[in-house]
Structure formats: structure tokens, C-alpha cells
Amino acid sequence: MTATPAHVRVLPGPDTPVIPAHRIVDGYTGPIARYAAPAWPLIPMNANPGVTHSTIHWPTFPDTFREEMRLAAWALINGELPAVFLRERHPTWRSRQAPKSLCQTIGTWCRLSVWLTDRGITTLSACTTQVLGEYGRHVRDSGTARITVHSVLSSLTRLWVFDQLSGRPSGIGCPPWETEGVDDYLPPASPGGENAAEAIAEQTMGPLLVWAIRTVEEFSDDILSAWAERNRLHAAAADNSATPASRAALRAFMDRIDAGQLPIPTTQWLGRTTIAGAYIAAHTGASLGQVYSATRAHGWRQAALDRPGPCPLRVPVTGKLGGIPWREAVDYTEAGFLMRQLGTACFIVIAYLTGMRPGEAAGLRSGCCPDPEPDSAGRTGRHLITSTVYKTARDEDGNHRSEGEVRDAPWVAIAPVVNAIRVLQRMVPPGRLLFDHHAHDLRGTRAGTGSLTVHTLGTRVEDFITWANHEATARGLAHEVIPPDPHGRIGTERFRRSLACARSVSDQVAVRSAGVETRSLVSPLQLAGPAAA
Predict the structure, then answer these.
(1) Does the pTM of the predicted model rise above 0.70?
(2) What per-residue string of b and e applies to 66-80 under the rule 16 or more CB within 10 Å gives b?
(3) Residue 272: C-alpha distances to residues 64, 89, 189, 267, 310 (Å)
């Protein structure tokens, strides 16, 4: 059931909520921006855990246009396009927009206002049909792709419509493409969209998948154990009290290192080598204050620059690379970094070997892939993944639903995907998002709920490649290096595109797991797809 939109012809006051109650997603309990606020966060309307939260920043608008645009934006958020208007539009037009699209639309209005200001125009009433035509041609000739220009023109049409629907219309002119047609304001067609993304080159995707599966299946136990031990030591250091006994234990520890001129446990902080205070405190029982005081008094700050040493964790290393242990020990200072690489490896495996959209992968929850129950004959079926679709989710009026909807056909999960999901379930609490940012943003600096954003995941894929190549180079495994893709960044969308290409040409992918080449060939028809495919 669709709620009745707010009556946007009523003028809002400074304290009027920006977002109406019927557009606030279920479960949101945070603040709602007020009309006069300099920033309008749109997170109350967003239930998609994998997208960046959009915010409208009013100081970016020229002073002369800010209040006119603010009123039109409030009408855009609180109102809907009239049915009589939509009847004359392409079916892709919707009566209201999702938060990300809202922010993009209002960003287009901001760029228009900057362009107008540069030409000495200071009010929307002076932005006539002729002026809009000039701006339309300016955008057309800017070298921007046709699909993007079309989106800009549509956003300006929305400005014209919602200005008329507001409580104080400014009188902006009717865009000329509304009466003359849009073709004269569009550049020639150019490739664009998801399907235009180049598939990841085979010479890049092969070793990337090898490293991702290896990290999930061979290194994950070591990384998870190291992270748990790192957290235990960190908590112990914070809880230690300063006592004469702890001071004596710390002094004995320092004397033993100085007597043998041994490396001093250090870490990197803001690009500088410094004493690993928490690690030393946890191992000696001293308080953090005692550690920092004693190391300063005994000249360890300078000595650490001359004799920097590791901080090995006392957890067994079972994973192997090239037939030998991949680490002598996992270091206290690298446990969090390795957790980040492990989460990224899980994403790469899931994204490539299922063909999910990145947003669907980011929206997966613990428990999404239960073990199949055997049938009456004792046969066990395939693992299936229940996922949420966000991009194509619509309500009965055709408007986008940011909370998404359950996919009709679940995804088939082959063994590497199941293993990746099981590792992620060890990283997050039961029922939570597999890429929950509280579990994967290890510094815990971002407020709110949700998963790592698709943009963040794309950045982490590039970081994973850098890390894997460093590991391969450090161990003399030149044949394990992931070569650069000829089309640039891997991102997130290209995994889906790469799988589609692999299916179309009936390629096979060689999967090497656990550091030993097994040449386990996976048919593209096995790689991924809905159960109904």
C-alpha cells in the first residue's frame, strides 16, 4: 500500500522535517534533518546496506540560488510526479526517486545554478526556456556520454515540474526538449551501462581467483585465530593495573632484550616506527602507563628505530604456500590488515563464482546458505543462496524500493562460494550482514548500520591485488603475480561481466587451492546462476 504524499504546496518552516514519515524506512530511529539545516542526510530513506549514504550539502550551491533550490528539493523529496505527467513519459519514469537518484538530481540542479551564476543570472525566473536550451547544448557538447546527458536533462525537467508543485514557484522556464523533443540535445550514442564493462582479462582473473580461494580456504583459520588473539591481548593490555610486580616483570623483559641486543617489538603509527606498547603490556602484565614511562626512561624510543622487531602472536600457523608455511607467525600488528584481505577474498569468490550484482553480495546475511537437507533417498542437493535484489526492486506503483526484495530464484553455490560464506559467518554475529561494516571496518569509525559499500569493496579489491602480489614477490613466486588488467581497475561490476563472458564462450577456469596446483577445472555452467537456470 502506498502512503499519500505530503502536500508540497504547503511552505515548510525552518524546523520542518526534510523527510516525510511515509518515506522513512522501517527500523530507522536516528535523526531527521530539518529544512534549514546545511546538510540533508538521506539515510532515513535508505534500506539498502550496500550503497553509500547520500547527503545534500547546501553550502555547495551559489548563495543566490540556494533557497529557491532548497524549496524545490523539499518538494521533490516530499511529493510525487503527477499521474497526468507520467502518462506522457517513457515507462522508466517513476513518480519518486530513490535516495541516490535524488541526490544525483539535486546535484544536477547545483551545477545548473553554478553555470547560471557564471553568466550573471541570479534567479530561477530568469532561467527561461531559451537559457535552458543553451545549457542543454552546453551539456550535450561537453563530451559526456549520451546516457548521462539524458539523465541531466531529465533532472532539469524534474526541477521545472517540482518548482510548479512547490508552495512558492520561482517560474523557471519549460525545458525546450519538452516541446521540441530530446534528440537535438543528445550527443551520438556511446557505450554505457553495466553490460559495457569489459570482462576481466583471463590472465588477470585466473591468478586473482587463485589468491582469493587460497586466502579463504588455506589462510582463513590462521587469520581468524590471529585476530582473536590480537583482540585478547589488546583487551588484556587495557585492563592491566600498575603494580610493583608488573613493573618488575616489565623491567625483566626489557633487560633480557637489551642484554642480547634483540629486536624491540614495534609497530607503525602514522608512518613512524614506534614501541608496540599494547603488545608489550599484554605479555608482561604491566599497565600501558608503565610501558610508555619505562620505554621512555630507558631510551627505547630511539633504540626501537635502530632495532625494530616483530610482534609474533602465539597461535599455530597451519596454512601453506608452495608447500611450506605461509608465515612463521602472524604478527600482532598485521592481524587487522589480514582480516581485511580475508573479507575481500570472500567477496571476490562470491562475486565471481555466482554472478551476483555487487549490491546483492553486500546484502547477504549470515544464514543465507544453509546446508541442504538430504531427501528420502539420502541424496543431498545443492547449496542455494537466498539473496535480496535491490537494483530492480519496485513497489506496486513502479517506484524503487530501497529495502529490496527477495530474489525469486536462489543462487547455486559451488564449494568455494560455500566456503567463503562460512568464513564470513565466523566474522559476523548470527543474522547480521556478511559484510557488516562493524565487522569489516576494524577501526570502527563509521556510524550507522549496513555493510561495506560497493565503492569500498571496489577499493579493497585493488588493495587485495597489491597485497597478493607483495606476498608472491616476497616468496619468489613470480608465476603467482596477478598481472594488471589491460582495461584498468577491476572494480566490482566486472566480476559479473567476466562470468557472463566465460559462459558465452564455454571457457574453463583453472582453480588452484591451498597453495598446490590441483587444476580443478570448473565449467562456466557450474560457476554460478539462479537455481532455476
Answers:
(1) no
(2) bebbbbbbbbbbbbb
(3) 47, 60, 52, 8, 15
